[in-house]
Amino acid sequence: MNLESCYYADTYVFNLGDGVDTITESANGSSTVYTDILRFGEGIAASDIQTQRVGVDFVFSHSNGMDKVVLKGIFSATSSTSNYLVNNVLEKVEFADGTVWTWEQMMLAGVKQVGSDGAETIVGWAGNDIIEGGAGNDILDGGTGSNKLYGGAGNDTLKVHLSSKDNLLSGGTGDDTLVGSYYADTYVFNLGDGVDTITESANGSSTVYTDILRFGEGIAVTDIQTQRVGIDFVFSHSNGMDKVVLKGIFSATSSTSNYLVNNVLEKVEFADGTVWTWEEMMQAGVKQVGSDGAETIVGWAGNDIIEGGAGNDILDGGTGSNKLYGGAGNDTLKVHLSSKDNLLSGGTGDDTLVGSYYADTYVFNLGDGVDTITDSGGNDQLLLGLSPDQLWFQRNGNNLDVLVEGTSDRVTVSNWYSNGASRIESLQSSGGLALTAARVQTLVDAMASFGVPAGGESNLTADQRAQLDVVIAANWQ
Questions:
Q1: Helices (H) and strands (E) in the chain, counts
Q2: Rounded to whole angstroms, how far apart are CA atoms 190 and 406?
Q3: In terms of domains, do 316 and 437 share one?
């Protein structure tokens, strides 16, 4: 039934089983507001009614799937900046049990729109929206206000106006693009949601608004690995399929670059109550992983974890506290001179390791090839995955060579004899024994008396070996 009103106060009555009624309110052009009422009869509870926007109309639907009231032409247009026509609305909705909804309360709760299974663009209004996409590749535009956008299935784009606040964006399954505002946004990601890309918007203000990435049930802290890829920051699930990409977080691919403070997520929340802050994630180290080709991988101004691949790589940790792993190939690993507490492990191949003014840890294992260490100061250590009786010490010009008997492996510490700052203060064996820099020369002198090992073999007699073992035992403690 079509119900048309006058310019002034009208009351519309709808009872259970009345079917589909269409109401057209008339605008009088006056600033005076007259109270129009929709009155639901006995047997219709507030919990039975769902409100929804359809085009420019506003619909009250009963849960029985048959009864419905359509309020015609309420919204001025289908644009994200459109508003409702104040003279066309119902000021009140009344229920038989005394419950009353005002128009303002309904708008504040959010105007709901539901998409179909096709690809479509659904646009909110200037106020609060709840938009649910269907199975297609949809564009959901919440506009201004405070919005809740649910992409559903398909590869969807969810976006809000830059000035909107307190939005929730959930892409659903498929590979989705989520674009936030200048203010606080919450992004929801559930197991099986695919690859979602988040773009946070920088407002240029010094005020920090709390943006949140919320992982749903079934995603544990131990499932998520974080990694930097170019200027993006990525949260990868261990299932190899689910991923969240936070776009454009780092200012550049240089070792002095920093993250853009207005583009980050202040918190990552898990269903078990665990919370990661952005500062904690940065403190733990920003991870980058190389390919099997030759490449240069550059960290940022903070802490890095960089893993090279099989190529001849250059890994530059920059400032901060860094962990660099060369992997296979002939790699160069370096950090800024002002960085502290770094770990450099060349891996297999002939590698160059360049430390800082401060404490660095260098790692060398059996089969790692020929590594060259250049250190510049600090209380450093060399972790050797070898026992003391496998190591042969010799002077080579101004350098110190540590050879691995029976192999072609060698670690060279550059300028050991010409610059005290270049020395490694402690060498550690696989069994936990330590050799201090001050005791190294004792081993060099003792081993020099037996000659340089030919082809990696010392060829000592049993008596010579016994004599040397005494010296080794006295100095490795």
A1: 4, 41
A2: 54
A3: yes
* Domain boundary pick from 229, 262, 284: 284
Q: How many CA atoms lie within 13 A of 24 on its CB side?
A: 5
Convert 240-279 to b/e letters by CB count within 10 Å (16 or more is b).
eebbbbbbebbeeeebebebeebbbbbbbbbeeeeebebe
Q: Which residue has the tokens 């000659």?
A: 451
User: What is the domain count for the chain?
Assistant: 3
Residues in the chain: 477
265 and 348 share one domain: no
Q: Do 358 and 425 contact (CB within 8 A), yes or no?
A: no
Contacts of 208 (CB under 8 A, 6+ apart): 261, 262, 266
Q: How many CB atoms lie within 10 A of CB 79?
A: 14
Angle in degrees, CA 384, 388, 389, rounded to 5? 130
Q: Are residues 101 and 37 in the same domain?
A: yes
Confidence at residue 5, expressed as pLDDT on a 0 to 100 scale: 52
Q: CA–CA separation, 421 vs 375, rounded Å?
A: 7
155, two tokens: 């590869």
The reported pTM is: 0.83
366/260 same-domain check: no
Kindly state the average pLDDT of the residues 427-449: 97
Same domain for 2 and 91: yes
Q: Are both 309 and 438 inside the same structural domain?
A: yes
User: How does 319-340 read in b/e, with b if 16+ C-beta sit within 10 Å?
Assistant: bbbbbbbbbbbbbbbbbbeebb
My answer on whether 328 and 450 are in the same domain is yes
Residue 226 in tokens: 């974080």
Question: pLDDT tens for residues 86-119?
Answer: 778 899 999 999 999 999 999 999 999 999 999 9
| 416 and 457, same domain (yes or no) | yes
Residue 8 scores a pLDDT above 90 = no
The separation between the first and the last C-alpha atoms of the chain, rounded to the nearest angstrom, is: 96
What residues make up the domain containing 86? 1-109
pLDDT bucket at 410, cuts 50 / 70 / 90: very high
Closest C-alpha to 304, from 344, 331, 337, 249: 344
Q: Is the pLDDT of residue 62 over 70?
A: yes
DSSP letters spanning 401-434: EEEETTSS-EEEETTTTT-GGGS-SEEE-TTS-E
Q: Among 284, 305, 328, identify where a domain stops.
A: 284
CB 114 within 8 A of CB 124: no
